[in-house]
Design brief:
This protein has 13 helices and 13 strands. It is of the alpha/beta class. It has one domain: TIM Barrel (Alpha-Beta Barrel). The strands form three sheets. The protein has an eight-stranded parallel beta barrel with strand order 3-4-7-8-9-10-12-13, surrounded by four helices. The longest helix has 22 residues.
Length: about 350
Amino acid sequence: MFYEIARPLLFALDPEKAHHLGLKELARAHRLGLTRWLRPHVDDDPVEALGLTFRNPVGLAAGLDKNASCIDAFGELGFGFIEVGTVTPRPQAGNPKPRMFRLPSARAVINRLGFNNDGLASFVAAVRSSHAFTARGGVLGLNIGKNADTPIERALDDYLICLREVYPLLVERAGYVTVNISSPNTRDLRSLQGEDQLADLLRGLRDERRRLADRYGTRVPLAVKIAPDLEDSSLPRLADTVVDCEGDAIIATNTTIARDGVAGLRNADEAGGLSGAPLFARSNAVIAALARHLQGRLPIIGVGGIMSGADAQTKLAVGASLVQVYTGLMYRGPALVAECRRALRNRHGATTWKRSNSERAA
């Protein structure tokens, strides 16, 4: 009810201003103890994936809380897991404004933000200051990337810096690290999805994670987030590379540079990644292709275009084990989380995977 009142006011603002205002007011409401009234009355629905126990299969996708400033506040909305970031080693402003555009009739958003964030030191401090969500059993995802001015051939350096800094945070609480190689808004980033480039990147991260696991006595799961714009023929090789390099999950998918379903709409020609309802079908196709090839060797986290509980059910039906929402939350508000949770409570046929964490690490 509250969001139905607030949404017209937020949608009257520039999308990026509305985004920041929404985070600010959510944080304020949490400090005042008001967000507890947003908690959905839905029983827990545990899911085992990535060697972790998720209270329920509905998560918040990365990008909404880039600086990890609202983890506990978002936790009040009923998410089973929350992914924050993308964070880069050094702070960066991102791409020039305006860089975020609504397409309301399509229930979509285009953004070309470009990993705007306050940097790794601030991010780590913010995660450390959050306690309530993970204390109640919530799983935390920390999404890492590279700075825009780091040459693509040195990308591994940035990912390693981030991995070393966020790893101890996830030793202290249940969570995973996501390697974001699929944003369309950082120049050349998606080239890291190429077969050789991906193998080199993930081998470097695999070796560093082995060292960190020995140091801390805990193996933190690693997920890889991919683009929806990959050729279908490349998906089996990509999936095999993630398995071979000891990845623990694939997140499918990021935003798309395609404009299927929005041609002719205001703002449709803006550069950037398209999210929301028009992404739904392509994201599902990628999930289904991965699931057919992987045959349960890795879980898939399905994200892209979930606007209803039925959409979340479809993600699981085509092969996902967990789902994430972002743009749907902007259009539907907190009610979407409860709706998805209720829809998934009687799910059937969720993907299983054949190798335990210890077997993948062997």
